[in-house]
Amino acid sequence: MEKIVLLNECNEKNLLKVIEQMKIMGSPTIRVYDLGFDNLSQAIEGSHRLRACEILNITPNIEWIDPNTIIGDLDLIDTDCDPEKPVSTLGDWENYNIEFDI
Questions:
Q1: Structural domain of 7
Q2: Sign of CA dihedral 15, 19, 25, 31
Q3: Would the pTM count as exceeding 0.85?
């Protein structure tokens, strides 16, 4: 089991929309990096999609990325993080996490 830490908290209204979309589109692909301990990984996107997967009992497709990847080299939407820093600076691993069998 892999625990994936969400990047952000979820807005219920947006979550309901994502759930309906996922019922049609199926499992999403989410980019994550390994935190290096306790089968714990940090998502760099897709908090609503991950929460929807949990609710719908769907396992997401995972795209593993190097934690040293520079934020500015990725096409992240709605991030206020420094584009010059590595993705390992995103998120807070103590936030709520979701377990997936991946």
A1: 2-100
A2: positive
A3: no
